[in-house]
Amino acid sequence: MRPSVLAYEQGYAIHVNQPGDALFYHLDYDERSHDLNMEFQHFHDFYEICILLDRTAAHIIEGSLYEIQPYDIVLLRPSLLHKTQYPKGIPPKRLMITFAMPRNALGIESDYNELFSIFDEPIPIFRFTEEQRKEVLAPINEIFSIYKQPSVLQSVVIHHRFVEFLCAIHRYSAENGYVREETGSLMSRRVYAIASYIHSHYQQDLSLDEVSRRFYVSAHHLSRQFNKVTGFTFTEYVQMTRIRNVQQMLLNSSEKITDIAAQCGFTSFSQFNRIFNKQNGMSPSAYRRRRHSQSERDVILVGERPEPLGSLE
């Protein structure tokens, strides 16, 4: 592999303000071990960008699996369910950026909306040529250097460099070279297609029999393979997807909890309460009160254990 075009120092972190502020940046340069893979997909109320520096990994976004290579840029908008699967062996190096940015600047709101449209792409992963990559990542390297030498207006300069970084991605977005590759066995690909279907239809009545017929596989075989690939039974996966979406609505709306449960596919409120308490260790109303009182709302399950990486064969 050619020398890195992205400055890197393990354990280096850049902070401007704090999560929960209207504007904040956190750039985290570190390694990520397979042992720290999350069990299930999570979401944030801020933006996240992941850039892998070496080896390969996989991103699961709304149940769909995407293989990523060094210098692929993964853009994740707020409230998007996702997780990264890092491989076994030597932990890959990566830069993880989390941020929030006001977009209501008087007179240029439409420009900001256009700029942030890169986060709304059907596949929000960007792969550029070597020359494009150097230009895109140059502002991030400047931020890396600027933060090492504190000065007047440092935060303002970092903010402007970061906007330049987003503008560069937008400028080359039409030339995005990322192509989703089919990996794993036919059955594992079908399982991830079914997982994606669950994320798109969790509000509806979903049964193993109905979904197996839709995807032309026996219910018994699907049940075994779904657990093998995802680490969850079909029913567990449906319930966790629904609960994640309930969590989003509890944090981002003032709707009644009974209405939220129904909108997310629960037909029995008592069953919903039981599942929510089991997964979160508290009631939905307590969760809403607790999470609203915290400045950082990086939502994961209480007591979440390491991810039993599903077999991709």
UniProtKB/TrEMBL annotation:
- Start and end residues of each HTH araC/xylS-type domain: 192-290
Where composition is biased (Basic and acidic residues), the residues are 293-307
From the record, what ranges are coiled-coil? none
Transcription regulation: is it a keyword of this entry? yes
* Keyword flag Disulfide bond: no
Q: Which InterPro entries match?
A: Homeodomain-like_sf, HTH-like, HTH_AraC, HTH_AraC-typ_CS, Tscrpt_reg_AraC-type_HTH
Q: Which SMART domains match?
A: HTH_ARAC (SM00342)
Could you tell me which Pfam families the record lists for this protein?
HTH_18
What protein am I looking at?
AraC-like DNA-binding protein
